[in-house]
Amino acid sequence: MRVHHIGYLVKKIDKALPQFEGLGFVSEGEIVYDEIRDIDILFMINGDYRIELVSPKSEKSVTWDLLKKMGASPYHLCYYSSNIEADISKLRESGYIPAGEPLPAPAFNNRRVVFLYSRHAGMIELVEE
Ligand code: NI
């Protein structure tokens, strides 16, 4: 499956931004607030690599505890999916457990995303093409 981005947890996007710019990343669009997940999101590009800076806004966000535990760090890979329901069933068969139903994501013009977890390979995300 083709990789869309690497999700990267940060405490504050405005503080992380210049650091990633210093490493050659360029912002792709503006910071978008995702109400469902209570996070700010900013995509940045460096050659073939895209990172998604994710910053939880409050304790309501599922990434809040993760950030507390891990600090600023990459935490998921996101893959393109041309058929999200079919890919979820296929991944289920290989041991991935979906964190819920696919839901629209503002950072992707409301294309649906879903997170899945494998105890052998960690967390991944699928985004509709
Ligand atoms: Ni992501």
Any descriptors?
single chain, 129 residues, alpha+beta, 47% strand, globular, binds nickel (II) ion
Task: Provide an overview of this structure.
There is one protein chain. This protein is of the alpha+beta class and 129 residues long. The protein is 22% helix and 47% strand. It has helices spanning 13-22, 63-70, 84-93, and strands spanning 3-9, 26-34, 39-46, 49-56, 73-81, 97-98, 103-105, 111-118, 122-128. Strands 1, 2, 3, 4, 5, 6, 7, 8 and 9 form a nine-stranded mixed β-sheet that branches.
Outline the fold blueprint.
Layout lengths: L2 E7 L3 H10 L3 E9 L4 E8 L2 E8 L6 H8 L2 E9 L2 H10 L3 E2 L4 E3 L5 E8 L3 E7 L1
Parallel strand pairs: 1-4, 5-9
Antiparallel strand pairs: 1-5, 2-3, 3-4, 6-8, 7-8, 8-9
Bound molecules: nickel (II) ion.
Overall mean confidence score, pLDDT: 96
Q: Structural class of the helices, strands and pairings?
A: alpha+beta
The succession of helices and strands, N to C, reads EHEEEHEHEEEE
* Total strand segments: 9
Strand portion, in percent?
Answer: over 45%
Helix content range of the residues, please? 10-25%
Q: What integer value in Å does the Rg equal?
A: 14 Å
Largest sheet: 9 strands, mixed
Which residue ranges are poorly predicted, with pLDDT under 50 across at least 5 consecutive positions?
none
DSSP helix count? 3
Large-scale geometry: globular
- Termini gap: 12 Å
